[in-house]
Amino acid sequence: MRLLKKIKAGALQYVLVISVIIAIIISAFISLVYLQQRMNIKHQFTKEAIAAVQLGFESLKHQKTPYDLKTPVHFYDNEIAVSTLIKKHWGIFDLAIVNSKVKNEFFQKIGLLGVQHSKREALYLKDNNNALVLVGKTKITGTVALPKQGVKSGNIAGVSFYGNPLINGSRKASSSSLPQIQNIEFVKDFYQNYLTNEMKSIELEDGVKIHQSFTNTTGLYTATKPILLKNISLSGNIVVSSKTAIIVEASANLEDIILIAPKIKIEKNTTGNFQALARKSIEVASGCTLNYPTALILLNENDTSVQVFNGEEQTKEQIHVSKNTLVKGMVVYCSDNNTSPYKTQIQIDDSAVIKGEVYCSKNLALQGSVFGSVYTNNFIVKKSGGVYVNHLFNGTINVKKLPIQYVGLLINNESNSVAKWLD
Fold first, then answer.
1. CA atoms within 13 A on the CB side of 245
2. CA distances from 322 to 272, 302, 304, 356 (A)
3. Does residue 40 come out as left (phi exceeding 0), alpha (psi in the -120 to 50 range) or beta?
4. Final residue belonging to a domain, choices 114, 131, 146
5. pLDDT tens by residue, 134-174
6. CA angle 118–119–121, rounded 5-degree value
7. What predicted TM-score, i.e. pTM, was given to this entire model?
8. What would the pLDDT profile of 105-131 be if each residue is shown by its tens digit?
9. Could you count the other beta carbons within 10 Å of the beta carbon of residue 253?
10. 48 and 194 assigned to the same domain
11. Together in a domain, 149 and 57
């Protein structure tokens, strides 16, 4: 009698297929669990790298970091987490590059740095032993620092002061010197000595588009003759320099770059954001929108161009912001030269708006509006054949219209903050 039965081949195949399927499912499950663990670890490393970069920018607020030196830092006890800080100058701003590597995960951010004031003043008027005189529809809103003679109403060509009260805010005493821009000496030196071995020449031609990362070498275009920027797009880590003049037309698209020339002219209806460093004049025509963080900076040199006023030759306005123009950022005139108290160094026309800061170490003629802070040696008004020192006629200063997030000039020992994230 036979006790064993022959098993059909089909049944064996069925069992084999089931076994293979089970093995695949188990293998897939193990692989999925392993992949999930790896992804969790990778995600954790990425989070640590991002957090370390953020901590790097936070540390820049509270500690002095040397310039142009790669500084390694450790924000975690984990030895595989390595972060690096690099702080550089970029015109009137600082530039910070912070990166972090945790195992194989790398994260980096680049930021333009300035100062964010916790208690910003609307006006700081240097004490030259003259009271501030308000005329016409002048309106000042915010805390002001004034000479010991204070503020009063006045009259120009039969026009009196229409406001009430004189100042919409608290008052305190100013001193015989303006608050100092901490890095202005660097900016002066940069104007003269911007050429370095770390720069790479670029060529500009009609229709060209160039973006230069701030992690790469600075792109430089320089010429002895005037440079006309039109039908062109330049952004990032680029310096354009002329020994004579730079003219920017509305067709040019400029972002984050630096312009250097004795004279800089920005034509009508131009839009963009950049830093303009000049020694003789900066002229911004009407209808322009210069976005944040724009910086118009004129440094220490007498202008030889003249205009005739009341039968006498007068130095032409060295920074002139025309009607219907908006500048989001800073307008700076800084000079140690002895100039006439009757000459204008910054002219802001009526219906022009500066949303940020105006800093003038000499004479400011403000007919438009500053939504932010004004630091000036003197105000000046030229009207009806007369020159009125320390008079403000139809000008508006309102610090409350400036967003608290605004980051600008390196004045006082306030903490550094990010004005703009770059790439």
1. 12
2. 16, 22, 21, 17
3. alpha
4. 114
5. 999 999 999 999 999 999 999 998 999 998 899 999 999 99
6. 140
7. 0.87
8. 889 999 999 998 878 999 999 999 999
9. 15
10. no
11. no
